[in-house]
Every structure is written in C-alpha cells, then in structure tokens.
Amino acid sequence: MARLEGKVAIITGAAQGMGASHARKFIEEGAKVVLTDLNEEKGQAFAAELGESAIFVKQNVASAEDWQKVVEAAEEAFGKVDVLVNNAGITMAKSILQVSVEEYRRIVEINQVSVFLGMKTVIPAMQKAGGGSIVNISSMNGIVAGAIGYTDTKFAVRGMTKAAAVECANYGIRVNSVHPGVIATPMVVQEDTKAAVEAFSKHIPLKRVAEPEEVSNLVLYLASDESCYSTGSEFIIDGGLTAM
C-alpha cells in the first residue's frame, strides 16, 4: 500500500523547487495534492502534468482570505485535508544595516505569518477529518545563525511548531519542522551561484549539497502515519553542518 494512500495534502510554494519535489513524491505515494503558489502559469502547468490527483490554487500565503480559499478548494475537490506542508518562503541576504523596514516586514509576512495563517486555517479542517500532520519547512538557519530576517523567521517557525504541537496534540494533529541545509534547487545552483555553492559544499561534512528528493523523503515520512509518535520536533537535513 502506498504510504499516503487516501490522504489529502496542501503544499505551498509548490510550482517549482522543493515544493514541486514534495508534491511529486506525495502523489507517487497515493496522496491527492493541492498545489499553491503565486506563479499561476507554472503552477497550472505542473498540476496538469501531475494529473487528476492534483489541483492548483493561486495563493498569496500572507493573505488570510487566500488561505480560506485554499482550504475550501481542497475540501471541494477531495473532501478533506489531512496534511499541510508550509513550504513557501523567501530568502534575504542583506546585513542588518542595509535591510529596510519594508523588506524586513515582507520576509516576516511570507516566512513567518504565512505559517501561522496556514496552521490556523487548516487545523479546523483537520479536526473534521479526525487528525492530521503539519510539516513546517524551516531551515538550518532556524537552528544556527544566518542572515538577518531569514534567520529570525526560521527560528520563529521552529517556535510556532512547538507551540502548535502541544496545543494540537489533543486533536490528533501532529506538527513538526524540517530544517534543510544547502539544497540543489534552481535558485541555489543557477549559473551565477553554482561555483560558490560547489566551493561551499567542500565544507559540508558529507561533502555535497542535498537533492530536493532527499528532503522530500523526510517530509513524506512526517506526513505519513509512520511518524505517528513524532510531534513538536525538529528534523535536520543538512549533511552535518549544524553538528560542527
């Protein structure tokens, strides 16, 4: 039996990169998936490629109204919501002296507030379904320091995960966070950064960056019933970087 047979998942930021990898893996394992993204063209094309087990909903993850529309679309198309993967996020690599208040508020809205809104909106649907699993994608910079703004929000995701896990345990809803290191997504391995990433990979204990599918395997585990006793925990997938 497929590991997600009968489950319905919402995955944000799923038009490309890690989100697309998670979606593909989930469908391979029997799930129905609602893909969300701001990139409507790529999202619609990807949903069509995945077939009848996927639908696409254009979403601004920082909008409470858009979250409500996504949950309603999931229930209308597939009847329920069992899994939420809060994957959407942005990076920012400016110093604290360079970043503007507007830029800082934007990264907080997209990386942090969106996770709060996603959980707040999906939890009632999961209660109706009899339980569920929420997987919040943080970062290794939710464990150790990185750039201002990005680090702050990824630490916040880690904290929200623990608070929500304790509250939601009585509902049969598990909440965990995933903390990737350097992953070979298009954003990371584009031509102008490829050499720098290859040089950095020599400092990773496992001597390489991870493929998106490797992160998807971990997210799949947390979405499935195999992880039924795991909640409120951090799952680090960084090739050993934070162990140094």
Give an account of the 3D structure:
The chain is α/β, with parallel strands linked by helices and 244 residues long. The chain is built from 7 helices and 7 strands, in the order βαβαβαβαβαβααβ. α4 packs parallel to α5 (150-168). It is globular. Keywords: Oxidoreductase. It comes from Peribacillus faecalis.
> Mind summarizing the main beta sheet?
7 strands, parallel
DSSP helix count? 7
Name the poorly predicted regions.
none
Strand content: 15-25%
Q: Whole-Å distance between the termini?
A: 39 Å
Q: Give me the secondary-structure category.
A: alpha/beta
Number of strands: 7
Residue-averaged pLDDT, rounded? 95
GO molecular function: glucose 1-dehydrogenase [NAD(P)+] activity
Protein name: Glucose 1-dehydrogenase
Keywords: Oxidoreductase
EC number: 1.1.1.47
List keywords for this structure.
globular, glucose 1-dehydrogenase [NAD(P)+] activity, EC 1.1.1.47, oxidoreductase
How would you summarize this macromolecular structure in one to three sentences?
The chain has 244 residues and is α/β, with parallel strands linked by helices. The chain has helices at residues 17-28, 40-50, 64-78, 101-129, 150-168, 191-201, 212-223; strands spanning 8-12, 32-37, 54-58, 83-86, 132-137, 173-180, 234-237.
Task: Give the topology, please.
Layout: E1 8-12, H1 17-28, E2 32-37, H2 40-50, E3 54-58, H3 64-78, E4 83-86, H4 101-129, E5 132-137, H5 150-168, E6 173-180, H6 191-201, H7 212-223, E7 234-237
Parallel strand pairs: 1-2, 1-4, 2-3, 4-5, 5-6, 6-7
Helix pairs in contact: 1-7, 3-4, 4-5
